[in-house]
Design brief:
The complex is a heterodimer of chains A (304) and B (211). By secondary structure, chain A is mainly α. Chain A has one domain. Helices cover 71% and strands 0% of the residues of chain A. Chain A has helices at residues 7-32, 41-51, 62-79, 96-117, 121-152, 157-163, 166-190, 209-212, 218-243, 251-275, 283-303. In chain A, helix 2 runs antiparallel to helix 9 (218-243), helix 4 (96-117) runs antiparallel to helix 5 and helix 5 (121-152) runs antiparallel to helix 7 (166-190). The longest helix of chain A is centred in the middle third of the chain and has 32 residues, at 121-152. Chain B is mainly α and 211 residues long. Chain B has one domain (2-208). In chain B, helix 1 (2-18) packs antiparallel against helix 2. Chain B is globular and about 55 Å long. Chain B starts with a helix and ends in a 13-residue tail after the last helix. Classes of the chains: A mainly alpha (304), B mainly alpha (211).
């Protein structure tokens, strides 16, 4: 099903996504007692990178050049399928969330083989970690989606989010809270945020995502940075869709509630980053298996 | 709401499986003890309530405060702060926990219910805690962690007792008796100074004794 009017929201998402990164940075700055960078800093960075030239290592092949484009295109396509809370997505069909996660998967695949393409053992290490953690997050994500599908009896994201009503929160609040917690953990993992990876660090042993993209420069790096902010937007939108049960038929009200919720999620990520230290790498699988355990509990809760 | 408590009971089970620090495990069990004490608030006791209230208050105090206190003391005395090298790693333990959860929900759905006043989940959660407790006893080396595992198992038995309290009130009282058993274990660790006489409380070493 195609909702023409929602196309505007797609472009709005593309425009607003980098703000989330800025909000996270600003929250961390406030916690640390700093003024922080300007709220539009991510946009400035993107513009700056777009104006620069690129340098390619001689050992790389066309895979290395095509990877940022494909992963950015993948994430942009997924945004066409993501509803703004209760406002329907531009495209919606049965099982669209499966396409969403495998489009992200294509992007990840190309980032990983591009990292291997550079021939640097350092980037290979990051690629290995990225693949390991995504192997954990994928079944967990699908387990939570099974839970949501069973709770709402709907099988597309737009209808799923419509199915999450205040009534559902009173009857299966426990399962919904757990689902929200899991999605938050996955948001942190997939976007390489702090308990899993530190996006600011450039210390070899702690990096996952950053290490894979070290060899990119100029517009290519801008694509990657922008793709990362879109991915953050996507997972936040998933979380927002689950935790906001309110539905008015006024598009403006629904839209602003959704945006407020997105900002709140960004602040929450910032708070987590300020309060927690990065986990030791061996502890990350344990945390993810823990999230998997919660997902299993969710599925059993809906089996009754 | 009662579902939320059962969910929290399951989650504390998983936290227990995934944590190596004894102080943290003991606190987890204390939280679980308090949650257990809250369960009877949602039951309808039909004349049994004085008896039930006294028993559950007692067990809340014992499980939530007294036992954790003594366990912490035992921990400090035996100077074992951390479960260093369990037979089964913490991450693997959690995977085993997920399997246990599946098995217990399956078992609970197969069992005929007694009269049907008790929530369906109670049986599953009690099986889960029993399995996890047994697994902890099998997979950890330190005597104190094994006592904690026993306590978890015993919590499972208690949930089962509370769920069937109307039909079989005696079960709950037997559950309190099991607590006393735990106290005996703890005293055993403290009084006989298991740590001192063997230099550690690693039960794996017991198998190398020669008679």
């Amino acid at each position: 099903m195609i909702n023409d009017s929602s196309i505007i929201l797609f472009f709005l998402s593309l425009l607003c996504a980098p703000i989330l990164l800025s909000v996270i940075n600003r929250t961390k700055a406030i916690f640390a007692g700093r003024t922080g960078q300007p709220i539009l800093q991510v946009y400035f960075d993107l513009i700056k990178l777009m104006r620069k030239g690129t340098v390619y290592s001689q050992t790389t092949t066309w895979i290395f050049r095509i990877a940022p484009l494909i992963s950015l295109a993948g994430v942009m396509t997924t945004l066409l399928l993501i509803p703004w809370g209760k406002i329907p997505a531009p495209f919606t069909f049965t099982g669209d969330f499966i396409l969403v996660f495998y489009l992200l998967g294509i992007g990840r695949f190309f980032t990983v083989i591009a990292a291997l393409d550079t021939g640097s053992s350092f980037e290979g290490m990051g690629a290995s970690r990225e693949v390991l953690f995504s192997a954990f997050t994928e079944p967990i994500l699908f387990a939570t989606l099974i839970t949501l599908v069973r709770l709402t009896d709907e099988a597309s994201l737009t209808n799923l989010f419509h199915g999450i009503t205040p009534f559902l929160w009173t009857t299966s609040g426990a399962a919904l809270i757990l689902v929200a917690v899991i999605i938050f953990v996955i948001l942190l993992t997939e976007n390489s945020r702090i308990p899993v990876d530190d996006p600011n660090t450039h210390l070899e042993l702690t990096m996952i995502h950053e290490v894979m993209v070290l060899d990119y420069s100029g517009p290519d790096f801008a694509f990657i940075l922008y793709g990362a902010s879109l991915k953050l937007w996507l997972f936040s939108a998933l979380l927002a869709g689950i935790i906001v049960p309110i539905h008015t038929d006024n598009v403006l009200v629904d839209g602003s509630i959704f945006l407020l919720c997105m900002l709140a999620i960004a602040v929450a990520v910032g708070v987590v980053e300020s309060l927690m230290a990065r986990l030791r790498l061996v502890l990350v699988p344990r945390m993810l298996v823990g999230a998997g355990a919660i997902a299993a509990v969710c599925i059993y809760l809906t089996l009754k | 709401m009662i579902d939320l408590i059962f969910v929290l009971l399951i989650l504390t089970g998983f936290v227990f499986l995934g944590s190596g620090r004894l102080q943290f495990s003991i606190r987890t069990l204390a939280v679980q003890g308090i949650l257990l004490g809250l369960i009877p608030l949602w039951g309808s006791w039909e004349g049994l309530w004085v008896r039930m209230l006294s028993i559950t208050t007692l067990s809340l105090l014992i499980k939530g405060f007294v036992l954790p206190y003594y366990l912490t003391r035992a921990m400090h005395k035996s100077k074992v702060m951390h479960e260093d090298h369990p037979f089964v790693g913490f991450t693997t333990s959690m995977v085993v926990g997920i399997v246990c959860l599946g098995v217990s929900f399956w078992l609970a759905s197969r069992l005929p219910t007694l009269g049907g006043t008790q929530p369906q989940m109670a049986v599953a959660v009690s099986f889960f805690n029993v399995f996890v407790g047994l697994f902890v006893i099998m997979s950890r080396r330190k005597a104190l962690t094994q006592v904690l595992g026993y306590l978890l198992l015993e919590n499972g038995a208690y949930i089962f007792g509370v769920a069937f309290a109307i039909e079989v009130p005696l079960l709950v009282e037997l559950g309190v008796l099991l607590d006393v058993f735990v106290a005996v274990f703890v005293m055993g660790i403290v009084i006989f100074h298991i740590s001192k006489s063997f230099d550690h409380i690693d039960t794996d070493q017991l198998s190398s004794l020669v008679g």
